[in-house]
Amino acid sequence: MTPEVRRVITAAEFADEYHTDWRQIDDQLQNWFAHRTEDDDRAAIEVRLVEPLMPDDIAYIDATSGGNAYSGSLAVNVSYLVRNEPGPQQEHDIALLLQRVFPAEQIFRGGTSRLREGRIC
Question: Nearest-CA neighbor of 12 among 48, 40, 33, 42?
Fold first, then answer.
């Protein structure tokens, strides 16, 4: 670590309050990055992660009503960090993004059999 990087890390100021809820952490990070300045970008340090922080084959299982509230969603959704093929997992991601703008009742996702038959919701 260079002396300059050590100085920057030592002088870094972090928020007094950290949230234990991941949604609040995500909101805090989005707010932090949304309000960065050109000076912040110039002062950024490069971090190289040479080893994975978690296994590549980890799965996230979502059985919450909020993540599965739109029409056509499964009751439980399993998501993986690495996705080799496009398909239903990306469709679920798109539906979750749409839920940030539209109520879940207005989002419809058709199943693959209905798509092949040309009957899309």
Answer: 40
* 71: three-class secondary structure by DSSP: strand
Q: Which residues pair with 71 in a beta bridge?
A: 108
Q: Which residue has the higher pLDDT, 120 or 7?
A: 7
For residues 118 and 121, give the distance between their C-alpha atoms in angstroms, rounded to a whole number. Answer: 10
In Å, what is the CA distance from 67 to each residue of 77, 85, 108?
Answer: 8, 22, 14
70: closest CA among 93, 95, 44?
A: 95
**Any idea where the domains of the chain sit in the sequence?**
1-48, 52-121
Tell me, what's the pLDDT at 115? Answer: 46
Amino acid making up residue 101:
V
Long-range contacts of 85-88, Cβ-Cβ distance < 8 Å, separation of 24 or more: 87/112, 88/112
The 10s digit of each residue's pLDDT in 58-115 is 888 888 877 778 888 888 888 887 778 888 888 888 888 898 888 888 888 875 444 4
